[in-house]
Amino acid sequence: MTAGSGGPLGQKVASSTFPEPGLPLTVIEKTRRRESSRGRVIDLIRSSGPISRVELAEKTGLTQATISTLVRTLLTEDIILESGRGESTGGKPRMFLELNPASRLGLGVHIGQDYITYIIADLGGHVVGRRRVHGPGDTSPLTVVSRMTRDIEALIVESGVNRASIVGMGIATPGPLDRTAGTVRNAPSLEIWSDFPIRRALTSTTGFHCEFDNDATAAAIGEYWLGATEGYANYASVYMGSGIGSGIVMDGTIYQGVSSNVGEIGHVTVDARGLQCPCGNIGCLELYASPRIVVAQAADAAARGELDIPLTGVISEDFAALGTAATNGDATALRLMQDSAEYVASAVISMVNLLDLQLIVLAGSAFSTAGSFYVDIISDALAHRAMARAIHPVEVRLSVNGNDAAALGAATLVLQDRLSPRTLRSVSFA
Fold it and tell me: Could you tell me if residue 424 is inside a domain?
């Protein structure tokens, strides 16, 4: 992601958002204010449309003249449409406005350990194209990027979309990462990719403007974009794929921390005298609850004759099979799932107590078949152990985006950045 000042969802904004250096401060301030107002109007039309110009002015606090100018520009750019007039109340009937979803598209890419997922999404968050292929494995990043470039072009062709409508590409990967450099830094599931310039490479080979963030943060953005977190100003998306991370929204804004590596819940200590983690910490959650560990425990149980399910060696597939077995009542599979969920619940309680959250969203492929176990166990733990339980409940729910949470979140990430440079709060919680 382009280095610069804080932008939408607490992220850095592409340089095109701001005026050239050297312009008077008043010009810079006016430009930022204009971009923020544009973003607020787009988001209100997207989330509340059909909506009239009068209602836009009332909800944003902007003048009718400013609204008229912004709406006229958005109509010219085909981002919004006039969708008909309301009933007359004695004066001229109000013309309603709504988003033109197909006018702009975002491309999202999630690079995981087992799979790479590609999503093309429109302004309404609807998936118009999807492709899922095997993960990078031990193949060199240069070779994988070449393959990804071909996959992206094939997806565009088979989806029948206009390439010119794609405003950019969002890339989501496990962390930790360096968003300024556009690189992954020592991610356990992508070790060979450490310090490889993913963003620059894909920008060069595809020609698309690229944004870059971790998969948990992308998932949190996707939940917001689709309206699944409406009414919640403080929430976290706990993402479990090959590892475990979280995207955190505080007071309506994505919280990034100093280096955009906030939310590494997988490396919260759950056993102070526990195992040594490759990250250097002791007793990390991922050593007790991640799909990789649970599948390894399942393999040991199978070797002892305590579990009878076929294991393929693909962690996500084996974890899903284990979840299915647990759902069907297999005692060993159920015990392994419950143990994992209880460890995750302990880490979630710590996060909720620290940040006073209202909502926990469980996202990622690991929850596709076993999600109900985690929802029930985490909900029960929060109801009995969260410090503020007598003051407010904490809801736990599964992501509306299923296995595509990170990829769809990455697509909405780039749409958000290119069209609505603002914080979440300006619309949802103002």
Answer: no
Has residue 387 been placed in a domain? yes
Quickly count: other Cβ atoms within 10 Å of residue 153's Cβ.
13
Predicted confidence at residue 222, as pLDDT, reads: 87
The CB density around residue 67, as the number of other CB atoms within 10 Å, is 21
Last residue of a domain, one of 55, 73, 102: 102
Number of domains in the chain: 3
Those residues with Cβ within 8 angstroms of residue 313's Cβ, 6 or more apart along the chain or in another chain: none
Give tens-digit pLDDT for 324-335: 999 999 999 999
73 shares its domain with 51: yes
Q: Which of 87-91, 106-110, 180-184, 245-249 has the lowest mean pLDDT?
A: 87-91
What stretches of 27-126 adopt beta strand conformation (E)?
51-52, 80-85, 95-99, 105-111, 115-122
CA distance 89 to 92: 8
* 70-103 pLDDT, tens digit each: 999 999 999 999 988 766 565 677 889 999 999 9
252 and 170 assigned to the same domain: no
Q: What is the domain extent for residue 108?
A: 104-221+407-418
Residues 86 and 171 in one domain: no
Taking the C-alpha atoms of 62, 68, 73 and 79 in order, what is their torsion angle to the nearest 10 degrees? 80
Q: What is the pTM of this model?
A: 0.82
Number of residues that make up the chain: 430
Strand order across the beta sheet in which 105-111 lies: 127-134, 115-122, 105-111, 166-173, 210-214
Q: Say whether both 183 and 268 belong to one domain.
A: no
Q: Does residue 35 belong to any structural domain of this protein?
A: yes
Q: Which residue bears the tokens 């974009």?
A: 225
333 contact partners, CB below 8 Å, separation of at least 6: 298, 307, 309, 322, 323, 325, 326
Residue 176 DSSP symbol: -
Spatial separation of the C-alpha atoms in residues 241 and 215, rounded to whole Å: 9
What residues does 237 pair with on adjacent strands? Answer: 247, 361
